[in-house]
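User: Some background: our group keeps a shared notebook of sequences we're curious about, and every so often someone picks one and asks for a predicted structure to add to the entry. Today it's my turn. The entry only has the sequence so far, pasted here. Could you supply the structure so I can complete it?
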Amino acid sequence: MNRRSLKFALALSCGLLSVAANAAPGTPVAKPFADADHVIYTPTRDSVVPKAGSNLTNHGGGVLTSAKVVFIFWGSSFANASSADHTYATTLQAFRNQFGTTGEYNTITQYSGIQLTNLGSGTPDWFDTSAPPTNVTDSSVRSEVNRYFSGGHGAFNSSTIYEVVIPKTSFSSSGSSTSCGGPSLAYCAYHGSFSGASGTVKYSIEPYPSCSGCKVAGWSDVQNQEHFVCHETREAVTDPVNGWWNSSTGAEADDQCAWSPSPFIGTGGFAYQYEWSNANNGCIRTR
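Assistant: Of course. Here's the predicted structure to add to the notebook entry:
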């Protein structure tokens, strides 16, 4: 597991952020449980504080200068052309295929030479028609990514983020915390990394946004998912393993602008959130 990062929170109803802990500059911030890095947490109401406003620092762990995203759609409904989940999946693919060349992605090119890129030009996506467990643990996510490699669906690539998408019949868990559908809602999505047979694997779990705590009012389910894919992809690019983050709070680039200003519909009619810009010392839509 890489940097012990305690993330900012996605509020269930008020859309504000919580600073969970502070540390000395350059000191990793302790996580409340051992399973997953880079989690977007839900705060308790009495812990909500104003948004952090200081710049990100490069901690030397590198970035993904020319990133790719591979989707692993886990569940038979995603492959069923007559299912709404199939449209959900293909819409996420369309979002991914254009995202890396948009102004919304260009905001992160200020960090260590990150380049505009076709995020969909890597190895193929995988529609895994096996049934995921109801409770998809962090170890289950990692095992599913490893099955992508061992099953011949695509070779490992160090610049690729492997994003596992699960249906509404399942929920994600990390320690005692869960996503939508679970008994202890604490986050909407997360990204992390682990040591694989061929190198450090960057991955994300993208649970179905089936609860009010992970929705923007008036948005469709897939628009809400685009929002989280935007957030987790940009953070996995800027901070794959101890890269760019706020030394005072542990927040990554998208954490500093999560939910406030409000997420928006942008390039291509897809959903995005604001991104922290060191150059602007604030949250911006595009660059």
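Suggested note for the entry: The domain at 57-244+262-284 is CATH 3.40.390 (Collagenase (Catalytic Domain)). Confidence is low (pLDDT under 50) at residues 1-38, 41-50.
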